[in-house]
Amino acid sequence: MSVFRSDLSLEARDAAGVEAEVDVALNLVTGNIRLSILWTQEIQLSADDAEQVAKALQRAAAESRSMEKAEAPGAAEDQPGPPAA
Predict the structure, then answer these.
(1) Which of 45, 60, 68, 81 is the most buried (most CB within 10 A)?
(2) Which of 41, 25, 28 is nearest to 68 (CA)?
(3) Model-level pTM?
(4) How do residues 31-66 score in pLDDT, each as one tens digit?
(5) What does the H/E/C string look like for the chain?
(6) Do the Cβ atoms of 10 and 59 come closer than 8 Å?
(7) Residue 39, burial from CB neighbour count under 10 angstroms (0-12, 13-18, 19+)
(8) Residue 60 dihedral angles phi and psi, to the nearest 5°
């Protein structure tokens, strides 16, 4: 099992017809974000696909920040709500 979870909603492909694609994945252990260009060294994106990549990176960044917040010491004590039984 991989520690990376790819953004499955991302379907960005090379606009020049080369069979390249982009992958954005979150490392579930470290919270780091991996941006991969598959099958080539570069990729040309249409405006729509570039926007998809940007949104996927933003989703991954938000999730990474949530992971950091949840793992911070005392994070559970800082959460409002009823006391634990």
Answers:
(1) 60
(2) 28
(3) 0.79
(4) 999 999 999 999 999 999 999 999 999 999 999 999
(5) CCCEEECCCCCCECCCCCCCEEEEEEECCCCCEEEEEECCCCCCCCHHHHHHHHHHHHHHHHHHHHHHHHHCCCHHHHCCCCCCC
(6) no
(7) exposed
(8) -65, -40
